[in-house]
């Protein structure tokens, strides 16, 4: 196998048992002296589709025709990419921790870590866009990124598959925004913007970091004369600096737009985004360990996310039988639980006699409806109400896992 390397430390055989790259064959370990700050080894080329003059080709390692398959089949360890920094990093670790998947990182400058609960799996910390690139290149099997990053850098590639589409954090939208003053003061929709006479004599200048989604959106919305300037951050400054007429960027609270005298317009939202779990389809199909680890991560995530908005409520209620108590509980709309209440007799002792005069009822209640549910329980004779948080609600079969197997035809 031959490799030619550009811009990277040379790879050489390393026999240390403490290698931070356990899944690489020994002959491709990074030299010990360079381990403090490991760098990408199997990156591949990604090009911007627009504009041409900014097209970049970041070929870090060139593989010969046979190397990828040889390497992938040699790699037995499942690789899970997590955001190394930025907005998604802390929330991702928090969610995994809530699912009892504690990511153990030896030190913050090492980008590889492990989750002791998941055997034969390495966590690799990467920038979100690099997670998508490395999934495409086959250097990662699983990853957590924002849907926006997945859409921009995944380029619609069918080898990437969304395993969980709503991890409940990183909510934002990719939106077109224009100044709220000057020639744009009375412009309130994409349609009005596209019909402004100005764009016949000169192009509409859009600042964005979304070089794949941006041009497509503008074209689909009838903008014929558009130029793009590319920036990675602080895009909201571009109109005030005279660099752009509009920006295409992520919006969450809308504060940054407002503070920079910009506004969103009708029809200007390209996509709604939140954190998602993505997998490489080929890895799922070909490697049982990838499927097994994915299933466990997904089951924990689904069960936890299902539970997170619920309380479990226990109460005692006087009644002649479980059926009679059930009838009273079910008459209250807020007390129906997930499938119905669990009711069991409480054997209390009165005058030396043990009788099931009381029944204990257990239900799941949405957090938002807790107080209403407690009131309804009291109205039907409930007492001694106990409320506790829920960690997991496991279904008989995880719905998203079932869907995934169908999609993979497995
Ligand atoms: N204002 C926001 N509110 C909520 N989530 C956001 C917001 N901005 C970005 N995100 C989400 O967080 C992800 C990571 O954003 P972040 O700005 O941390 O990194 P990045 O800009 O994509 O990475 P890099 O710094 O490598 O360019 C985004 O892809 C998006 O999914
Ligand atoms: O609607 P808001 O809640 O105000 O958030 C929107 C801002 O958040 C993101 O930037 P970030 O803070 O990540 O910094 P960046 O501009 O350097 O990417 C995004 O690019 C917007 O600038």
Automatic annotation (TrEMBL):
ATP phosphoribosyltransferase catalytic domain ranges (all copies): 127-302
Names of required cofactors: Mg(2+)
PROSITE patterns: ATP_P_PHORIBOSYLTR
TM annotation in the entry: none
UniProt cross-references to Pfam families, sorted A to Z: HisG (PF01634), HisG_C (PF08029)
Keyword Plastid found: yes
EC number: 2.4.2.17
Keywords: Amino-acid biosynthesis, Chloroplast, Glycosyltransferase, Histidine biosynthesis, Plastid, Transferase, Transit peptide
Family, similarity comment: Belongs to the ATP phosphoribosyltransferase family. Long subfamily.
Protein name, UniProt field: ATP phosphoribosyltransferase
Biological source species: Salix dunnii
């Amino acid at each position: 196998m031959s490799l030619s390397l550009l811009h990277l430390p040379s790879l050489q055989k390393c026999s240390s048992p403490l290698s931070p790259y356990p899944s690489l064959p020994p002959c491709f370990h990074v030299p010990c002296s360079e381990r403090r700050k490991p760098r990408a080894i199997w990156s591949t080329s990604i090009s911007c589709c627009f504009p041409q003059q900014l097209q970049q080709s970041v070929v870090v390692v060139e593989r010969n025709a046979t190397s990828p398959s040889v390497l992938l089949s040699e790699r037995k360890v499942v690789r899970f990419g997590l955001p190394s920094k930025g907005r998604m990093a802390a929330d991702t670790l928090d969610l995994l921790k809530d699912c009892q998947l504690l990511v153990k990182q030896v030190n913050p400058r090492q980008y590889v870590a492990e989750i002791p609960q998941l055997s034969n799996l390495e966590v690799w910390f990467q920038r979100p866009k690099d997670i998508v690139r490395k999934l495409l290149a086959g250097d990662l099997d699983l990853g957590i990124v924002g849907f926006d990053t997945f859409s921009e850098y995944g380029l619609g590639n069918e080898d990437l598959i969304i395993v969980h589409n709503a991890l409940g954090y990183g909510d934002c939208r990719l939106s077109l925004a224009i100044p709220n003053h000057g020639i744009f003061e009375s412009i309130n929709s994409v349609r009005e913007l596209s019909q402004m006479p100005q764009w016949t004599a000169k192009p509409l200048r859009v600042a964005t970091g979304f070089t794949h989604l941006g041009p497509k959106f503008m074209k689909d919305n009838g903008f014929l004369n558009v130029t793009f300037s590319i920036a990675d951050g602080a895009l909201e400054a571009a109109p005030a600096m005279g660099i752009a007429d509009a920006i295409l960027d992520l919006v969450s609270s809308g504060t940054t737009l407002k503070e920079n005298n910009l506004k969103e317009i009708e029809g200007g939202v390209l996509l709604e985004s939140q954190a998602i779990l993505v997998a490489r389809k080929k890895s799922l199909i070909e490697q049982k360990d990838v499927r097994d680890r994915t299933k466990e991560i997904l089951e924990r995530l689904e069960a936890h996310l299902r539970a997170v908005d619920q309380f479990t409520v226990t109460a005692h209620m006087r009644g002649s039988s479980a059926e009679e108590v059930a009838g009273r509980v079910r008459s209250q709309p807020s007390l129906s639980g997930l499938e119905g209440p669990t009711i069991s007799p409480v054997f209390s002792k009165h005058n030396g006699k043990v009788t099931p005069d009381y029944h204990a009822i257990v239900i799941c209640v949405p957090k938002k409806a807790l107080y209403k549910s407690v009131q309804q329980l009291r109205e039907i004779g409930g007492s001694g109400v106990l409320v506790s948080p829920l960690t997991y609600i496991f279904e008989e079969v995880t719905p998203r896992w079932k869907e995934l197997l169908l999609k993979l035809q497995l």
